[in-house]
Amino acid sequence: xxxxxxxxxxxxxxxxxxxxxxxxxxxxxxxxxxxxxxxxxxxxxxxxxxxxxxxxxxxxxxxxxxxxxxxxxxxxxxxxxxxxxxxxxxxxxxxxxxxxxxxxxxxxxxxxxxxxxxxxxxxxxxxxxxxxxxxxxxxxxxxxxxxxxxxxxxxxxxxxxxxxxxxxxxxxxxxxxxxxxxxxxxxxxxxxxxxxxxxxxxxxxxxxxxxxxxxxxxxxxxxxxxxxxxxxxxxxxxxxxxxxxxxxxxxxxxxxxxxxxxxxxxxxxxxxxxxxxxxxxxxxxxxxxxxxxxxxxxxxxxxxxxxxxxxxxx
Length: 314
Fold this sequence. Notes:
alpha+beta, 22% strand
């Protein structure tokens, strides 16, 4: 499946929702009051207001930003049940957000006093139902993912007596860097244009995501080590004496682990920064550690060679 087809289930709904919202808003712009009602209480009465410009840009920005986020997630995913779930949630979210935004514009049209705007709460049930139906249809339309190829056995790299060898690679995750950049930028803007305390949390979250979006994977006489290229701790270590075997596998971040970062599954752990080639290490406790990295066959072969030499005492 091409990248364009993979992105379509989320990019198209969010693109349509953004276009409809902006179009309806601009067509009704001169018929809207200077301040419009944008939030409603449990009885349907307006209790939150914003200027027309703020409402236009905040609504369009929310739809476009979430659309970009879901599209990046789909780009980083391969065909799998996890990717289907991302598509279904993304399409449903586009409808669930787009419906009330457009409805709010229509409710404010030709109103002189925004406090008179009333939005019945039965619309909440409608938007939730529309979101669920859209998600279900998207799930059905994106069915039929092929099976992934099985793990490839990796022969040991034979080391001569007294020979030392090490292997190291750096992995960078665009799937983590992009959200980290958006979150960090949002924190900076909040600190500049609003109370500075409001930007501390998103700024810290953005830094943490960025710090662990690039890791150094090392195989040497100590075993396997995975550490951030920015901060020294925390790090993942698998000692050589606990390794049974290593191999190269194909990993789908969403389908196999449900996302990116340090992932935990029954008897399986993973440092998953992207989909694709990965090093898989099985330990004496029956647990597998999976690290997405290029040239994983070489890393697995060296690790198997080191394990063999350690076991034979050579």
